[in-house]
Amino acid sequence: YGYDGLFDRRRQTPSPRRAPVAEVERLLRLYRDRYAGFNVRHFLRRARTEHGVRFCYSFVKQALQGAGLVPKHRPRGRHRRRREPRPCFGELLHLDGSRHWWLALVPDQYLTLIAVVDDATKQVLDAELVDGGESTAAVMTALRRVLLTWGLPMALYTDRAHWAAHTPVAGGAADRPQPTQVGRALAHLGIEHILGYSPQARGRSERMSG
């Protein structure tokens, strides 16, 4: 790692594939001075878009770890991995619907709570109780309010409900070439649609619904 990694260990000469030392120093200085505390993936996203860094993820991770700027973690099993929240408000939103007897004073009224939550701040951007279930119209109405109030997010995270994705086989993969009305609207607006495959994967929005 570090400057030692710029040498070919077989010949003890500078590697022909080495990265420019000045660029490596700029990368490390950028992290120390402006992005200390960011994880590697979030830092690299910012470094590429705002500072013209072109290194790959593996190189940046090794460089930061070699300089002692980020810790080295033992890889965890898939069942224990936790996705880090996005660093900025509005990058990723979660939308989820939950049917329940929400109103204590009207115990026989079975309503659906549709909520939109920001991934970075956990702020609830929109929440509404609707009758008739988690319909396309109800979801589109909630999204319209959020977009008019808060602007366009980079991505939207949802489950694979009938309004979100066409799933030919129950429990199977979504048929991306056949988007739903919501999917087409998101694509038209340039919003990435991320589909979750389990309640655990949608933990932030599921916790909102209790």
CATH architecture assignment name of the largest domain? 2-Layer Sandwich
The whole-number mean of residue pLDDT values reads 83
Q: In which range does the helix fraction lie?
A: 25-40%
Number of strands: 7
Question: Would you list the SSEs in sequence order as H and E?
Answer: EEHHHEEEHEHEH
Number of domains: 2
Strand percent estimate: 15-25%
Major sheet summary line: 5 strands, mixed
Rg of Cα set: 22 Å
The stretches of 5 or more residues where confidence is low (pLDDT under 50) are 1-9, 11-16
Structural class: alpha/beta
Q: How is the largest sheet built, in terms of strand order?
A: 5-4-3-6-7
- The termini sit apart by 46 Å
* Corresponding CATH superfamily of the largest domain: Ribonuclease H-like superfamily/Ribonuclease H
Determine and state the CATH class of the largest domain.
Alpha Beta
* CATH fold category name of the largest domain: Nucleotidyltransferase, domain 5
The oligomerization state is single chain
Helix count equals: 6
List keywords for this structure.
single chain; 210 residues; alpha/beta; Nucleotidyltransferase, domain 5; five-stranded mixed sheet; two-stranded antiparallel sheet; 7 strands; disordered N terminus
How is this structure best summarized?
The chain is built from six helices and seven strands.
